[in-house]
Amino acid sequence: MPTIALDAGGGDFAPRETVAGAVAAAADGIDVLLVGDRPVLEGELEHHGVELPIIHAPSVVGMGDFPIRAIREVPDASVVICGKLVSTGDAVGFVSAGSTGASLAVAAVGMGRLPGVSRPAIASLMPIPWNPTVLCDAGANLAVRPSQLVEFAVMGSVVAETTAGIPNPRVGLLNNGSEDSKGREMEREGLALLREAPVNFVGNVEGSDFATGVVDVIVTDGFTGNVFLKTVEASVVMVAKAFFSMLAKKDPEAEEKVRPQFSAQGRQLMDDRHAGAHLVGARGIAVIAHGHAKSAAVAKALQMAHEGSESRLSEQIEERFHCL
Amino acid sequence: MPTIALDAGGGDFAPRETVAGAVAAAADGIDVLLVGDRPVLEGELEHHGVELPIIHAPSVVGMGDFPIRAIREVPDASVVICGKLVSTGDAVGFVSAGSTGASLAVAAVGMGRLPGVSRPAIASLMPIPWNPTVLCDAGANLAVRPSQLVEFAVMGSVVAETTAGIPNPRVGLLNNGSEDSKGREMEREGLALLREAPVNFVGNVEGSDFATGVVDVIVTDGFTGNVFLKTVEASVVMVAKAFFSMLAKKDPEAEEKVRPQFSAQGRQLMDDRHAGAHLVGARGIAVIAHGHAKSAAVAKALQMAHEGSESRLSEQIEERFHCL
């Protein structure tokens, strides 16, 4: 059974919620290895009356630390140890709700990049009910070269196939219009490269197209991707609120009737969202959970990592890069 | 009474909807000058039984034409004549639902930039009910220098004051996180410049912050701004649909009760959206309406241009740039 290492010290609600998430995932049959301060983790496990293997890692990389320096200067940090466990083969992947920069550094430097990958990227599955869409890069690489868009397209396609079960996923380039002449030099050059790439490329898509069902994978630089993803999430919350306040005024009984279902869906979406995203392009599985992840989201992230390993996500990406 | 020139030949539904919009605006007391193919416009006006002044401009700049070249090579295009009318003082501003690139070229070259403005930008008022927010640049300048962010902040602030009546508007820089270290070199340098700028700068904001009410003006490059704006709009439509389909299943009567109000609000938002945005930084008023603008949106765009002139939008921007 492949083991997933959990950075139990990372995240706003660590170690309480990380350990609780690990306990829930273990109950679902996932082989979890806790990485963090042993006495603290043992204390947490005692509350649950559960035993889980622990690897001692007394330090944590802070959100304000400069990631690459931190992972070099704090070798006993929980996230650094997680990366080591993957590189030695003691774990097939890791999950962290701590600093995204630190996880990125651990993936790129600690675990190592796959041949042909210039930098790992974040492939985020946007939970759009009628059309789950993978966004790559969702925030790892703020400035990218056109050729990296091709890497994102290949990696995003594999994630769409393996995590969302979408065969031959359609890939679109996020741009400010659909015409070939649109975009910055980056998008115009990227468009030409994507047309030649071994992916099912459908052309430019706009900010509105994630909702229209015309693509399964959206590629963009990590800056635009980050703004895009946060905007979608905030818009959903904003409109949902506006609806309920209108409905409560017009028809309070109806509002009471639908609110529970919508709230449940909202919580579900939030857990999905906080469970995080695959960090792709490294040797092994890395899932970055949201800093606010609570136990349900941590458990889900562990499940994601487990499934990523089962579906040979990293190996499939490696194979696909042989054709590039 | 200040005259607004309407590019009656521009837009997907020209001249029918542009002329109908002009007729509606004229009925509301706005002094409109139609610019386009005289016989065609006279035919349209006849349907309405209304007389409006016409300036003959037999050509139109197409959506596929390269804007700067088009406005040089097609001097009798309706949007080019609009710009000329503003530069000669025969009109205080113009409205066009045609090619945005052509309007930009007309504003920058035909009307001319205000001193200190490197390029005109699009200042789009996002109709968020509890917090109208100005986005600048919403799509004119895809790649910008950090110093241009300061220009966008100043121009966006004046638009927030004059069109949304927000005193001392709070300005935020769209970024991938709130910390100072976030963003590309552009944002990090821009942040430092904005801190020194004569605007009410509150720091970095994220894609989610347009909904939280923490800012009145969001500045960003035109590429990110375009993606951001289209994403917000699409998200609203997406959630609205999901909500109604859920409500229809759970409580069809309630759905029937609230749908009319929401549909009316939706139409209103759509008209507001299609009415377009101020193109700021040129000598005079320029409002770019959406290509899909129907008569109500065209009338609203003419109203926007009229109000922009009444509130001395261009002059106020010019004055503010004296302090830079």
Task: Give the SSE map.
The structure is a homodimer of 324-residue chains.
Chain A lengths: L2 E5 L8 H12 L3 E6 L1 H11 L5 E3 L10 H7 L4 H11 L4 E4 L3 H13 L8 E6 L6 E4 L9 H19 L5 E5 L10 H12 L3 E6 L11 E3 L2 H29 L1 H24 L1 E4 L4 E4 L6 H16 L2 H10 L2
Parallel strand pairs in A: 1-2, 1-4, 2-3, 4-11, 6-9, 7-8, 7-9
Antiparallel strand pairs in A: 5-6, 5-10, 10-11
Helix pairs in contact in A: 1-2, 1-10, 3-5, 4-5, 6-7, 6-11, 8-9, 9-10
Describe this structure in words.
The structure is a homodimer. Chain A is of the alpha/beta class and about 325 residues long. Helix content of chain A is about 50%, strand content about 15%. Chain A has helices spanning about 15-25, 40-50, 65-75, 80-90, 100-110, 145-165, 185-195, 220-250, 250-275, 295-310, 315-320; strands spanning about 5, 30-35, 55, 95, 120-125, 135, 170-175, 200-205, 215-220, 275-280, 285-290. An eleven-stranded mixed sheet of chain A has the order 3-2-1-4-11-10-5-6-9-7-8, with helices on both faces. In chain A, strand 2 (about 30-35), helix 2 and strand 3 (about 55) form a beta-alpha-beta unit. In chain A, helix 1 (about 15-25) crosses helix 10 (about 295-310), helix 3 crosses helix 5 (about 100-110) and helix 4 runs parallel beside helix 5 (about 100-110). Chain A starts with a strand and ends with a helix. Chains A and B meet through helix 8 and helix 9 of A and helix 8 and helix 9 of B.
